[in-house]
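Chain A, query sequence.
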Amino acid sequence: MMMIDLGARPHGRVTRARVSLAAPTRAKTRRLARSSSPDRLAMASPYLSRASSLVRGAFTVASGGFAGSVSAVTGLGGAVVFIPALSKLGYEARHIVGTAVVAVTGATAAGSFAYAQNGVSDVPAAVTVGCVGAACTPIGQLMAKRLSGKTLRKMLGGALILCSPSAMLKKHRQDADEGRDAKADWKIKRERPPPTNTYEVVRNQFLDRHDKYGGWIEALSAEREMLALGVACGVLQGTVGVGGGVLVSAYLTGMTDMEVHRICGTALLATVLTNVAVSTAHFRNGNVKSKSAALLAGSAMACSYLVAKNISLQLREEHVKQFIVVALISSGVSMLK
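Chain A, predicted structure.
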C-alpha cells in the first residue's frame, strides 16, 4: 500500500489518499476471470446485460412459459429452452446447468401430473425408469469426475439427431390389433369400475400390470427395458446434469409401440425423480440461482400444466411427432455446441 502526501492544510493537518497497488486476492482474481470469460461474454445478450431487473425478470418468466409449453407438447424437460435463456442472462456454466435442472423439475412435475389426471401416462413404466434413474445418478456424478461431460454431451447430441427421423416412421402395433380383446393374453382377467379420480387412474394401471403378467415380480421382470433405460437416464443426468427427458422420449419414440401422447406423459413423469435427485445435488453445491430458478420453474409449471391438461391431447398425432422431431434435433444441436 503506497501513501501519497497531498500537502498540508491551513490547520497543519496532512491529507493523504490511499492508492492500492497490492495484488488482488485469489478469490477476487477468480471472480474477475469468470466475469470476463470469453465464452460467457459471447453467450450473454448485450441488451439483457444492461437491462433493468424488471426486464430481465420478464425475459425469464417468458422463457419459462415457452419452455413449459414445449415440455408439455413434446415430453422433453425444456432444457433446450432453459439453457440458452440462462446463457443470454450471462450466468456461469455451473449456474446455467444447476438452475436449468431445477426449472426442468418443475416443468416435468406439473406436466406429468396433468397427463396422469387424463389417464394418458404409463405410470408403472415411468416409476420404474424414475426410481432406477434416481438411484443411478450418483454413478453419473462419479463418472463426471473422470470422464469428459462435454464429450458425452456431443455423443448424445449426435445420437439424438440421427434417431429423430424415427418419430415420423414409427408404426403402432395397436393399429394392427384393433378390434382384438386387449385382455385376451392376460394371466388374470379382472374387470374394474372406471376410475373417478387421479388416484384410481394410477392404482388401476398398477393393478392391470399385475393382472397382465400374473404377479408383481413377473410384472417387474417384464419391465426389463425400462430398468435399463432408467440406468442410462440416471447415469446421463448425473454426468451431464440434463438430458434425461430427451433420452426417455427418444427411446420410447423409436423403440416402442407406445402412442405419441402417452410417450409425452410417460417421459415427463419418468424424469421427475431423477431431476429431484440432481437438483438436490446442485442446491448442495451452490449451483442454483434461486431467483431465476423460481421465476423459470413457476412460469414453466403453470404453462406445462395448462398445455398438457387442455391442449396437448387435442393436437393430432402427426403434429406432435413433428414437434418431437424438431425438439430432438434442437436438443442434439445444442448438445453438440
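The CA atoms of residues 11 and 337 lie 67 Å apart. The chain has a mean pLDDT of 76.
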